[in-house]
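FORM 7B: Structural annotation worksheet

SECTION A. Query
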Amino acid sequence: MKGASLFISFVLLMLIVFGLALIIGPWIIDFSSKLSQKTENTTIDKITCQEAAYDFEPDYGIDGADWNFTGATDTLYVKIKNTGTQNLHNFSFELTIASSLYNFNVTSDSQKSSADPLKPSQSTILEANMTDVTNQSSDLQNIKVLNMVCPSVSVNVNV
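SECTION B. Predicted structure
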């Protein structure tokens, strides 16, 4: 009788272990797969962004920027050149006006998309409609150009 009870406890222990493995196993596999994919995406983004660069074209306006905040339609124009090796698109502006930050999207007419990106060595003029900052041109302090391919890569100019 002593041997049978040892055998039954061993079988019960194995059933518990396999039962827990069946329950926890798929969760662990799914968790590790998601973590691995996230790490891979982050690594690819970092490698891609190391090759991304752009700058203002200094021969355009004031250090690459021109604006008119006094007309019927207040606009900002910026000429940038892709100096890196990655295609860039989906640009936006972050302006510092009178020590306050304002974010503006590039108008659809001048926006670059994934289908029509700013390719290496190309230049483009980006435009923003800025009706929210009427008659603030004297208080414009900084223009920052951002892109969605590599949000960590941006350029700015103090005006």
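SECTION C. Observations
The beta strands are 54-56, 65-68, 75-82, 91-97, 100-105, 123-129, 140-147, 155-158. The first helix runs from residue 2 to 50.

SECTION D. Sign-off
Analyst initials: ____
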